[in-house]
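Consider the tokenized backbone below.
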């Protein structure tokens, strides 16, 4: 929901605008002083500000320039009780969106707000298309482009993001891209792998501890949450976070402060949270294995990364990119790929996704040697076996369908009775089945699901032989 802030010392005006704008679907706040207003603009990523000119602690017009210097500055609409042409000119020259009189009708306020928001949306869409740094994310398929678009949206705000997807789909990579493109990029990107932490270490690793907090705590130690101050905290495999820690974490997220293990004093840390999971957290909530309040907090925005098998067009790009960036080979000794090699990669279903693809390319390269052309026989045998089976199953299905459906289908529109049509189909099915297994009854039973006695009975009925 777009966020609007009113900075005006007249509380009555603020409350009237809050009511009206709320009804229009905006998330709306107000502050009575310039100082409090300026603090909230950047803490809450405000989209549009209604800014009064005469405030108890400063002049709104003079504040515009410094607000606008910020790369994520909101659109500013100046509101004033004493309209004057110089003030209006200064506002527009300082890049304010509009300048309106407080005595104007409510319609004017609503119109200015809607137009400013329309403009902001367009501006962000253009920015997101052109400015997101995505050099490490390879792929041009529509599925991956839509995820990159979400990265650019996530980068211009500060809300928690949950990245979901199978293992190896790039959850950590995408999280880093959000961080790199965000206003927090100058600070750290701190990774916490919740699945790798033993339960007794989770709390102190995240929140830190003071000296003597437990046996072996010989000195105080800062936690990862403190280290992420001003930066991004990446909670990998968030589904593994114990329930009691989720509760403490939620508080830290809301208050932006927490207490280290064994400590008395609260520590402040302002971090952006990005979480990742390969699990269905919604289902875990239903089974009481994950806290609902924590889930709602971390799920403000979701980016679901598609498995590689759903975006096979990207395989060629990833292979080429990985080969040309391989630091183990000099430029003259880079491997190239044959069409057959790429075709094999397209057939496989990639349960380990991009990570598995990269590993397979490395294996094939080391098998082939520097400067070689990669052929299918450089691929590991498990992959080639999978592909052979896949090709065989598909061709069997294709053979059978081409052989027996066509003649029968041609007759549907003729005078065949339903019963006769079914009989014909059964006979054709059995004929093709027996031919494909070259009369091997055992194989025919396995493929058709018929028992031996059923198969013999049908063969007798349709006068078919197994040779
Ligand atoms: N779109 C992509 N383009 C290029 N490389 C990618 C892409 N997606 C993933 N990778 C690479 O694949 C590997 C695995 O990515 P990453 O660790 O981000 O996956 P993950 O989803 O976090 O995996 P896991 O769930 O197992 O932790 C990394 O080497 C990463 O750089």
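A designed sequence for it:
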């Amino acid at each position: 929901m777009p966020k609007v802030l009113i900075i005006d010392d007249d509380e009555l005006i603020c409350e009237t605008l809050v009511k009206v704008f709320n009804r229009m679907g905006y998330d709306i706040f107000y502050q009575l002083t310039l100082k409090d207003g300026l603090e909230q603009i950047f803490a809450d990523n405000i989209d549009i500000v209604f800014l009064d000119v005469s405030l108890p602690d400063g002049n709104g017009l003079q504040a515009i320039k410094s607000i606008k210097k910020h790369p994520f500055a909101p659109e500013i609409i100046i509101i004033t009780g004493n309209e004057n042409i110089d003030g209006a000119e200064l506002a527009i020259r300082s890049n304010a969106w509009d300048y309106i009189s407080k005595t104007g009708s409510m319609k004017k306020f609503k119109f200015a707000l809607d137009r400013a928001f329309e403009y902001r949306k367009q501006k962000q869409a253009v920015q997101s298309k052109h400015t997101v740094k995505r050099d490490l994310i390879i792929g041009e398929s529509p599925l991956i482009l839509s995820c990159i678009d979400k990265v650019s949206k996530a980068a211009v705000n500060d809300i928690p993001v949950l990245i979901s997807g199978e293992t190896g789909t790039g959850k950590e990579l995408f999280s880093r891209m959000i961080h790199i493109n965000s206003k927090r990029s100058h600070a750290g990107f701190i990774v916490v792998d919740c699945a790798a932490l033993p339960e007794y270490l989770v709390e102190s690793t995240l929140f830190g501890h003071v000296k003597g907090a437990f046996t072996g705590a010989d000195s105080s130690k800062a936690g990862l949450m403190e280290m992420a101050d001003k930066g991004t905290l990446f909670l990998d495999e968030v589904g593994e976070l114990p329930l009691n820690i989720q509760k403490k974490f939620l508080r830290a997220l809301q208050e932006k402060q927490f207490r280290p293990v064994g400590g008395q004093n609260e520590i402040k840390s302002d971090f952006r949270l990005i979480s990742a999971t390969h699990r269905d957290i919604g289902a875990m909530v239903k089974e009481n294995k994950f806290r609902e309040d924590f889930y709602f907090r971390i799920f403000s925005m979701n980016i679901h990364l598609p498995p590689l098998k759903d975006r096979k067009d990207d395989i060629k790009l990833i292979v080429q990119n990985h080969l040309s960036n391989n630091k183990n080979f000099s430029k003259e000794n880079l491997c190239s790929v044959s069409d057959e090699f790429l075709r094999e990669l397209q057939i496989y279903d990639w349960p380990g996704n991009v990570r598995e693809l990269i590993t397979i390319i490395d294996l094939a390269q080391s098998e082939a040697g520097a400067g070689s052309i990669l052929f299918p026989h450089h691929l590991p045998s498990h992959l080639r076996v999978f592909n052979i089976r896949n090709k065989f199953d598909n061709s069997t299905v294709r053979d059978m369908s081409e052989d027996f459906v066509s003649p029968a289908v041609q007759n549907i529109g003729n005078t065949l009775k339903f019963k006769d049509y079914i009989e014909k189909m059964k006979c054709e099915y059995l004929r093709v089945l027996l031919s494909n297994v070259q009369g091997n009854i055992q194989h025919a039973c396995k493929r058709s699901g018929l028992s031996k006695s059923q198969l013999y009975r049908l063969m007798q009925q349709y006068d078919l032989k197994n040779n």
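The pocket of adenosine-5'-triphosphate is lined by residues 137-139, 165, 167-173, 236, 276, 278, 318, 354-355, 358 (CB under 6 Å).
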